Amino acid sequence: MDEQRESLVHVRGLKKSYGDFEAVRGIDLDVWKGEAFGFLGPNGAGKSSTMRMIGAVSPTSGGTLRILGMDPAIEGPAIRARLGVCPQDDTLDTELSVRENLTIYGRYFGLSRAECRERADELLEFVALTEKAKVKVDELSGGMKRRLTIARSLVSKPDLLLLDEPTTGLDPQARHLLWDKLFRLKQAGVTLIITTHYMDEAEQLCDRLVVMDGGLIAAEGSPAELIRDYSTREVTELRFGPEVMMSDHDALAGKVSDLAQRIEVLPDRLLLYTDDGERAVAAVHERGLSPAAVLVRRSTLEDVFLRLTGRTLVD
Amino acid sequence: MSVALENGRRQYDYWLTVYKRTWKGTLISSFLLPMLYLAAMGIGLGSFVDSKGTDALGGVSYLQFIAPGLLASTALQIAVGESTYPVLSGLKWQKFYHSMIATPLRPADVVYGQLTFIAFRVATTCVVFLGIIALFGGLHSPLGLLALPVVVLVGMAAAAPVVAFASGLENDSGLAMVFRFGVVPAFLFSGAFFPVSQLPNWIEWLAYLSPLWHGVQLSRDLSLGTLHPWLVLLNLAYLLAWFGIGTKLAIRGFTRKLIG
Lengths: 315, 260
Fold this sequence. Notes:
The complex is a heterodimer. By secondary structure, chain A is an alpha/beta fold. Chain A contains 11 helices and 13 strands. In chain A, the strands form 3 sheets. In chain A, strands 5-6-7-3-8-9 form a 6-stranded mixed β-sheet, with helices on both faces. The radius of gyration of chain A is 23 Å and the shape is elongated. Chain B is mainly α. Chain B has 9 helices and no strands. At the A-B interface, helix 2 and helix 3 of A face helix 1 and helix 3 of B.
């Protein structure tokens, strides 16, 4: 199987330091042609540093990096000619029109004016901005700007599309529209690399992902594999009334600890990680406990993520 | 070299669009100040100076004496204006330089594009200003038209190091310093309005350090036909050095900011 797959991004022992700070501390991965690959991780995990290195705009500090089979230290421009980049901040020229942002960007890749015009019109159609073609970027909503940035990253028909937190700050409608566009790109054969800290986004879009934490890869796999390996099939959430204090939670946890593979005690609720949530609920009641509210749900990537990267806030 | 040219060509549409968008807005600010100086100093003060005799100025009218200096100063001011806020915008505010280097363009290409645009802005403004000077009778001889390439070089000698300086800034508070301690003193003490030999010795030497003095000197010598070959070479070499070293530093600054 490995022989048939083409590795578009080949990473071994990759490191990135800024002065004394090690943002990426030695990671290994391959992104295969045609897949959607995700980087998950809290702020400061090293996702964006990795993305900038893959984008051939940031020299590596150690290890091996091959992008589209080329060494970014030597062939940066040739690599970037085949990449599409949607950065975390919109870097649109806000004083140019929507369409000019696309046509001018196409020129940087050496496309002819006619090609640029044609591509711009196709892409405006694709991201549903045709009616805004002549509007200045300043006047667009956040979601429209994001769509335009994605359209711009596609102007050169890239083999590999890098999306750094593509839907951060968007409303649900805009996010779903973007997901739809990205899914269609993937179906069209574009290889996607996405960073996000939205678990639902990762589950929706990514065939395979890595969870990064502290500059290292904490886990790798498909969303389903990660849930299987790092969580249970279901989670039972027990909430007790306001009269039950945090200290009581620990005692309560002791009474039900054998009902689940893992128990997590939170200030407001207990989480029972188990393959059969309903059976756990029944057992809790049999033991004479009466939680104020019970929720049985499937495990999500968020459970995996929190288990791997902890619940502590990272600033 | 050929890569840089090709990458420059790829930026042509961008800068053309920027120019189309901004030329009307810059028209007034580019011309108003020098026109006021030309009218007030050249014609107002000039009639007073001329009535006392202008032997110390080389026997030409005061208007003809200051016209090349005003032209060079205008070149400098436009060049510095285009090298400050637009550069910070590209690096920090709108970040369009960042989007440019996500393509096959390199930081050096972006610097060349920005500098070429500045040269174009300086040249187009100075062509028109030179025409106005000629209409006012400020050109002593047709040779004065050769001042145009000289003042474009003055603009670039100022623009390149200012672009380098701006690329190192985190916000625009440093830019006011460029105008307060760079542009304004250069404008007043670079021999545009009076021969710098009138100044106390130490200020006179400071004036010689300013690229503007060399530009004023050269364009005036061209206009008045008082060229000294070795002085011309010195003036040109000095301006080219500012431009060359400034460009190198600007590329270094851009590379640091854009590729981290």
